[in-house]
Input
Amino acid sequence: MKVISWKKFIETTKNRRPIPYLQDVVKNIKLSKGLALDIGCGAGVDVKYLAKNGFRVTAIDKDRNSVIQTKKICNNLLVEVVKKDIKDYKIKPCAYQLIVAWNVFPFLKKQDAVTILYYVQQGLKKGGVLIFSIF
Output
């Protein structure tokens, strides 16, 4: 199994399409014009999609390359990019219409994931949506 660096991963994924499931949720539930939080934003593709669909997005990643790429791809959009480990980020209560955590939880210790899921739940507005995946 070949292991690639995170920088190479960001370079490889920066031109991918937004997550199809995310697109379906935004279209079918008609979410927009609210706050969104992308935990572990990677190359910023999904952040850009959300911003272009009316969200004001906070993108978080602890990786320097992810932060640089997300700022680049989201230039001139309503996006705040934060370089921080999600374990150290304070999620605002009842603030977000949508929170995305795609392939984030498998990289966390079980107790950290449980704690973060609690704060994610608290961070969603009534009727808000969490989109996440695990592998």
